[in-house]
Amino acid sequence: MKHLLSTTDLSRGDAILILDTAEEMAAVGEREVKKLPALRGRTVVNLFFEDSTRTRISFEAAAKRLSADVINFAAKGSSVSKGESLKDTAQTLEAMSADAVVIRHWASGAPARLASSDWIDAAVINAGDGTHEHPTQALLDAFTLRRHWAALAGTSPGGSDLRGMSVAIVGDVLHSRVARSNLWLLKTLGADVTLVAPPTLLPVGVDSWPCRVNYNLDEVLQSGPDAVMMLRLQGERMNAAFFPSTREYSRRWGFDDARLATLDAAGGRSTVIMHPGPMNRGLEISSAAADSPRSTILAQVRNGVSVRMAVLYLLLSGDSSGEPGRIPTPILQENPA
Amino acid sequence: MSVKYIIKDAAMADGSHADLLVADGRIMETGASLSAAGATILDADGLLALPGMVDLHTHLREPGREDAETVETGTRAAALGGFTAVHAMANSMPVADTAGVVEQVFSLGRRAGWVEVRPVGAVTVGLAGERLAELGAMADSRAQVRVFSDDGLCVHDPVLMRRALEYVKAFDGVVAQHAQEPRLTAGAQMNEGAVSAVLGLTGWPAVAEESIIARDVLLAQHVGSRLHVCHVSTAGSVEIIRWAKGRGINVTAEVTPHHLLLTDDLVHSWNPVYKVNPPLRTAEDVTALREALADGTIDIVGTDHAPHPSEHKECEWAQAAMGMTGLETALSVVQHSMIETGLMNWADFARVTSSRAAEIGRVGGQGRPLAAGEPANITLVDPAARWTVAPDKMATKGRNSPFAGLELPGAVQATFFRGHPTVLDGMLNTPHPSAVEDSAWM
């Protein structure tokens, strides 16, 4: 694996290797000195054509914990906003010997385009492209779910997958790269997925996806899912006739206090509530739900750094044949400096 | 002094063999073992003689986007592709919405001399869809426009479309509709279906084409006018056109070579060379389009040749221009998808690429049978040839061929345009000699 563009490219073995590596990285994050020398001398460029402080700082923290040099390239205010093409930007980064490009782009497929072109030789990591995919988000969600699933089973997460787990993904699936990446990865890891959304916010063609579709959130919650993943409702959708009003959306598809209470009363003991952030509190998720013990929202953020460390590490420390590098234990020593 | 050619022993579309004596722009004689003093002999053994191909749908880009194509380069490509006439679409800059612009394009075509260039006139001023362009002035101009189209954009206002259909009856014109409901396709990037769902690209639903075609055939029926539907791309559109023809509505339809061969699965590559409008559809649509072309529901092949400079394709999918080149691959793609599949024979090929297209465009002297007394517009094809598509070797300026690297059957060996070989031995020869005379009055 040279790039990480989509979770459809990941085999079960690839995915588990990344998650297991992320567990090791997480252990580093609990040390006093949270830094490894693994990528010393390597350059990671965060190329962001779309604002995303959360994802950018997560990748930046991950690269820095691995001792890589990090360059942040935000398209706003740069030559890109003066009409420079993706090709020229890529060739500029190539000339500066970037080893990895973490790209966030408003256009679906831009990372894949970069990876398949001869414009640049660096490893390309998709940090969210249009309404296509956001693979590291899906990996950190899977990491979070796997820890939860293993804890319930009383085992260690290492080497395991999500077989037997049922996950509901709720909200604007049509425009969600998070939903797509999660669906493919959750299926690869053996989980059972139900999408819950207004019919207007599901893509034509969803019937060929490996999941169930339900328009009724209450019905899905009744069935006792192991995890409920709420998707962010983008502001620009709110006035585009996808639904009559935000209040109606919230009543039918929001995780509100009443639904939280119903879940608690029904004894959905272990169901976790997830959200990729940033949240619209009171719209797709209520404050009580977001702040409840069921919420994994902060754990997701924390796990994001570990997962991104694992991805950077596996892509950049692999040998020249493109095989992902195994983690030799000695590398996980603390940085002596 | 007239130059004479004898095309020896060519196979005709009906399977017979004959010699053709060409002189003074005409086929003087057909038969066995012809001879004429001073004639140049072309050995056509193994070659197929077809009426020169007529394209109802070409973007020559001039005036305005000479970086993408010029009348000169586009008509060279046309001649190499076996064409003797092309219709230049109106979406140039300025738009071909006045007699002045269509006469300019017409004259550029005459001066180039590679094929007959028939300008298409815009239906509405500036393609803006708000008021009718001076259709009559374009019809009466030296360009004698008969085909009117806002191609690239749909004449979506039903009243304006009705008026256009009615008005062109005054000079036997036809409105060629780019069927695309604009509200249903805002921001559309590819066919809406299983592939767009996975890729997260905004969908271009089949219903956006079909709803306009349904409306337009009913309008054409209501006002008794002639309608042509550009680049039909869906199985549902085929059904509507079949229904309309069954009711006697005066509608004709066209399909592009790329819609006869390629599907939206190719978008998985994210390579914008596959970005086109209307978009590539599904395998079921391709099957329906092939059957419709074979049974006559779809009348003709139109290339929708749409060259773009490379920077308009070397970018993100969403940023890329829509369109594909097609003039130099049309014959091979149609042979591959229609003849080698057994759906059509070469007589059908001559109908869908030449005679029917000339009828729809009211192009006299084109699409005629290869018979004594007829204008000598002839394409000689080696149907047994195999070649690999290499866009950088093409005469068009556009490098955006979706067939790059494909091995295809059939090669144009020679093209005769009004008696003159514009292509010989598969290579450009010289433009028609009258091109030089024409430049005198420009």
Can you characterise this structure?
The complex is a heterodimer of chains A (337) and B (442). Chain A folds into 2 domains: 7-132 and 303-332, 3-Layer(aba) Sandwich (Rossmann fold), CATH 3.40.50; 135-299, Rossmann fold (3-Layer(aba) Sandwich). In chain A, 37% of the residues lie in helices and 13% in strands. Chain A has helices at 12-29, 53-65, 86-95, 110-116, 135-153, 177-188, 217-222, 246-253, 257-265, 287-290, 297-316, and strands at 43-48, 69-74, 100-105, 123-129, 166-170, 192-196, 212-214, 227-230, 272-274. Chain A has a 5-stranded parallel sheet with strand order 7-6-5-8-9. In chain A, strands 2-1-3-4 form a 4-stranded parallel sheet, with helices on both faces. Chain A contains 11 helices and 9 strands. Chain B folds into 2 domains: 4-48 and 374-385 and 404-440, Urease, subunit C, domain 1, CATH 2.30.40; 51-361, Alpha-Beta Barrel (TIM Barrel). Chain B is built from 11 helices and 19 strands. In chain B, the strands form 4 sheets. In chain B, strands 1, 2, 3, 4, 5, 16, 17, 18 and 19 form a 9-stranded mixed sheet that branches. A 5-stranded parallel sheet of chain B has the order 9-10-13-14-15. Chain B has a 3-stranded parallel sheet with strand order 6-7-8. Chain B starts with a strand and ends with a helix. The model of chain B has no long low-confidence stretch (mean pLDDT 96). The A-B interface holds A 8, 85-87, 105-110, 112-113, 116-117, 129-133, 175, 177, 180, 203-206, 208-209 and B 189, 192-201, 203, 205, 269-271, 311, 314-319.
Helix and strand topology:
The complex is a heterodimer of chains A (337) and B (442).
Chain A (H helix, E strand, L loop, with lengths): L11 H18 L13 E6 L4 H13 L3 E6 L11 H10 L4 E6 L4 H7 L6 E7 L5 H19 L12 E5 L6 H12 L3 E5 L15 E3 L2 H6 L4 E4 L15 H8 L3 H9 L6 E3 L12 H4 L6 H20 L21
Parallel strand pairs in A: 1-2, 1-3, 3-4, 5-6, 5-8, 6-7, 8-9
Chain B lengths: L3 E9 L4 E7 L2 E6 L8 E4 L4 E4 L1 E6 L12 H10 L2 E6 L10 H14 L3 E4 L15 H6 L6 E2 L9 H10 L6 E4 L12 E2 L2 H6 L3 E2 L1 H18 L3 E3 L5 H12 L4 E5 L27 H13 L4 E2 L28 H10 L6 H16 L16 E11 L18 E11 L2 E5 L2 E2 L5 H7 L2
Parallel strand pairs in B: 1-4, 1-5, 6-7, 7-8, 9-10, 10-13, 11-12, 13-14, 14-15
Antiparallel strand pairs in B: 1-2, 2-3, 5-16, 16-17, 17-18, 18-19
Helix pairs in contact in B: 2-11, 4-6, 6-7, 7-8
